């Protein structure tokens, strides 16, 4: 197997780093959180838990 020069390793590292960052950004910005309706918010707020220790 032929040896790679340090500049080729560095360019390969830069390329994979850029691809990794772009992939993560695409995943982050493609996520759409669910918007809760007011009724669902009230149910969450009014949930009362009785802890028995």
Automatic annotation (TrEMBL):
It is a single-pass membrane protein. It comes from the Eukaryota. Pfam families: ATP-synt_8. The keyword Transport applies. The keyword Repeat does not apply. GO terms for biological process: proton motive force-driven ATP synthesis. This is ATP synthase complex subunit 8. It comes from Sinopodisma pieli.
């Amino acid at each position: 197997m032929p040896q790679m020069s340090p500049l080729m390793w560095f360019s390969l590292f830069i390329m994979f780093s850029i691809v990794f960052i772009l992939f993560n950004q695409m995943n982050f910005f493609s996520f759409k959180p669910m918007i809760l309706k007011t009724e669902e918010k009230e149910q969450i707020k009014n949930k009362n838990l009785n802890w028995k220790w």
